[in-house]
Amino acid sequence: MSVWDKSGVIELARELVASGFDIVATGGTAMALREAGIETQDVSDVTGYPEILDGRVKTLHPAIHGALLARGDRADHLKTLSRHGIVSIDVVVSNLYPFEAVVSGAIVIDEDAIENIDIGGPAMLRAAAKNYQHVIVLVDPEDYAPLLSQIALGGVASVDDVTRRALAAKAFEHVSTYDALVASYLRPQGTIPKRLPIGARLIQQTRYGENPHQRGAVYAIPSPGPPTGVATWQVIDDREMSYNNFLDASAAWSCALAFTEQAVVIVKHTLPCGIGISADPAEAFRRALSGDPVSAFGGILATNRRVSLALAEEIGRLRLDVMIAPGYDDSALKRLRRKRNLRLIEVADAAASGGFDMRSIPGGLLVQDPDADAVDASMWRCVTETRPTEDQLETLTLAWTAVRFVKSNGIVLARPGTVVGVGAGQPNRVESVRIAVRVAGDRAAGSCLASDAFFPFPDGVEVAARAGVAAIAQPGGSVKDDEVIAAANAGGVAMMITGRRHFRH
Asked: Which one from 6, 77, 130, 339 is the annotated catalytic residue?
């Protein structure tokens, strides 16, 4: 036994002793067992060597690893053990130094992090797991009781191969997750590694995936520094979250965090169908809802400020599946809990997740830096005869911030403080403009448009101009930029070139 997390280990040891086992333990674990009145041998008694180098070396010895790796069905292995006076080990109980806890603090001292890289523990777990047919390995206190139930039926021989193999897999998962976090900590920032260990930790299984015939689960990827992302989400009242709930809530939360002002975002199928900006949270919600009231039904709402009673009351009878925020006033929480089937998420750390943006493809991952730069309209360049007003420039900034979260080809129409039309996911840009204009209706006149990528032809600008769009922000860079700019001038539309693209496939 060699555990940092000592949850349940006293009870486990007691039951094992009652079943006829002898206990060998390392320093802190041995002390805890003895204090509980459990007879325990020190590892140094088995190896004949004291722990050295401040405990860095204690189990790395043939008397331990020979006992772990010897196959009980091999006569030559058993003879070797006998010749060297090594007693075989039937059960290993171990978990590792708290490296994740150490590097998750606000301040990390490098020496402390390095000292909490476990060496002997992973070696012992790997040896036991490799030889799982002859050695049972435990890394999770939740497995203690089920194992004891099997041992009670007839000792270690009664533990079936399926259980042994599953516990071995769990041990390798435990070690590989640990190693992935260590690699992440040591890796120079900003580098693309040749191999990318992830070490994802299961948060929960979902009832199914996107559809009932698919299995689903959500994992957190640990990284150095305070936890971010889904690891910081707390589902209030533990209401069940679906795969799609997690996906949509993530999209809504990422979008809300892109705004420095108080923002309310409503998302449907990962697309922001409404965004409202206002110092008044109730007004921010009204503006978000006005963007597309039909699509908002059954959507996901995110806000980047603590939820007040005023906002909770304004939500009223709108059917929402999920609401995600950095916190809730008690009065707001009481009001929102009355809504049926509304899942409330509180995010402990109101910051965007660090690390890579990853997507799965068959048999692999696509990895990139997050598209997370702040909008700086002062870097934009006006290319038309008409220049945007200060108010229009502010509204273009809102539209440009929002379009980053819209599936390409992405078009966003905005009026002061609110998104009024979104066109997304179309194979051609002009169709996305038509959709955004149609959703906006009369509000398209005088609105400001953001396009996530350049206009390849002037037709999209012509559609926008006919609808009364007053100003456009787009990256530029098309071979037909001159024709596109000419179309804007012909329609009396101001156009800003941002020099940056925001594809989101």
From this structure: 130
Cis status, amide bond into 131, omega within 30 of 0? no
Give pLDDT, residue 353.
61
- The token pair at 32 is 């805890």
Higher-pLDDT residue of 411, 237: 411
pLDDT(318) > 70 = yes
Q: Over range 150-179, report the average pLDDT.
A: 92
Among residues 433, 437, 434, 392, the alpha carbon closest in space to that of 416 is found at: 392
Task: Quote the percentage of the chain above a pLDDT of 70.
Answer: 99
170 is catalytic: no
Q: What confidence tier does 54 reach under pLDDT thresholds 50, 70, 90? A: confident
Rounded Cα–Cα distance for residues 274 and 398 (Å): 12
Lowest-confidence pick of 25-29, 187-191, 317-321: 187-191
Phi first, then psi, for residue 174 (nearest 5°) are -60, -45
Identify the CA nearest to 487 among candidates 454, 446, 452, 447.
454
Rounded average pLDDT over 229-237: 88
What is the pTM assigned to this prediction? 0.83
List the one residue out of 181, 147, 152, 148 whose CA is nearest residue 166.
Answer: 147
Question: Which DSSP string corresponds to 344-398?
Answer: EEEESS-S---S-EEEEETTEEEEE----PPP-GGG-EE-SSSPPPHHHHHHHHH
Sheet holding 271-277, edge to edge: 233-235, 343-347, 320-325, 299-303, 263-268, 271-277, 418-423, 411-415, 448-451, 471-474, 494-497, 381-382
The Cα–Cα gap between 163 and 21 comes to 19
The kind and range of the H/E element at 100 are helix 99-103
What is the predicted pLDDT for the residue at 166?
A: 95
Rounded-to-integer distance, Cα 256 and Cα 302, Å? 6
Q: Which residue has the higher pLDDT, 150 or 224?
A: 150
Helix (H, G, I), strand (E, B) or coil at 267: strand
3-state secondary structure of 317: coil
Active site (annotated) includes residue 505: no
Which pLDDT value is given to residue 386?
Answer: 96
Looking at 269, 407, 480, 505, which residue is catalytic? 269
Alpha helix (H) residue ranges in 258-315:
281-291, 293-296, 309-315
Task: Compute how many other C-beta atoms are within 10 angstroms of the C-beta atom of residue 115.
Answer: 15
Contacts (Cβ under 8 Å, ≥6 apart) of 351: 228, 257
The CA radius of gyration of the chain, in Å to the nearest whole number, is 30
